[in-house]
């Protein structure tokens, strides 16, 4: 029971922080984006919405994955427990498809940065349509994965046979009864296979971007060039985040092949990649300077409020003193300079 409370607190904390940070990022991208990234902000909004919904779903389902030979059980401790197995499984499927979408979005962002350095910024409509195109594989994943859901009673019986000591009465159980079915294989391959070509393309685009920033900089203003470098650094760091997902996949496979099995490891399968939406938003808020400056100004106003009356009175009182001091220094200077005439 203590373990369940810790797990719920973990997902609730991450989900709440993730929603707040990505809401801030969404606001800043809409209202505080400089002119140099007015078009690119569409992709930033896409990231913010993806990570915001991911944070909510992770908190809503609070998942635990239990490998069962050629099947798997999904145990949900979150609020979806009160909505039934279908909503829980649909939410889990939505979470997985958002992860796939975030990887494709990274690829689109690198492609955009490479394109803009040679051809100029595309139209908002063109960027939006490209976003819809890269969402297609994720949407297919969402639909297909829904057909992999097995009967909850069958999954529960499999759990009782293999893990008779597990107390799962206060949870909602769903899962996949046949991991070798065509729809299950397609879903698994769609979650794993695209990672390699996506990251290969990202490395190629990154190399091209660095080359263009090093060679073709005479037509770029220093401020524009700095923004390009900041965005590239943010994208590079964000591209490293999905490696947390590989940690969860590794834990799943070592338990699936019966190398080791433990309830904590089952919880860590999803708990390890859970901070990705938070880290992604922090990277954007910190490395995109206009957003960082806007947050610092907001934080300063909240922590160090200046009364309006006091501000005006102090300013009015200082102005004459400043003028007198300048005049005094000017007179002293004239007196100290010898007269050569």
UniProtKB/TrEMBL annotation:
It is found in: Membrane. Coiled coil: none annotated. The chain crosses the membrane at residues 7-30, 42-62, 127-149, 183-205, 231-254, 260-288. Keywords: Membrane, Transmembrane, Transmembrane helix. GO terms for cellular component: membrane. Its main location: membrane. The keyword Lipid biosynthesis does not apply. It is a multi-pass membrane protein. It holds the Pfam family 7TM_GPCR_Srd. The keyword Hydrolase does not apply. PANTHER family: G_PROTEIN_RECEP_F1_2 DOMAIN-CONTAINING PROTEIN, SERPENTINE RECEPTOR, CLASS D DELTA. Belongs to the nematode receptor-like protein srd family. This is G_PROTEIN_RECEP_F1_2 domain-containing protein. It comes from Caenorhabditis tropicalis.
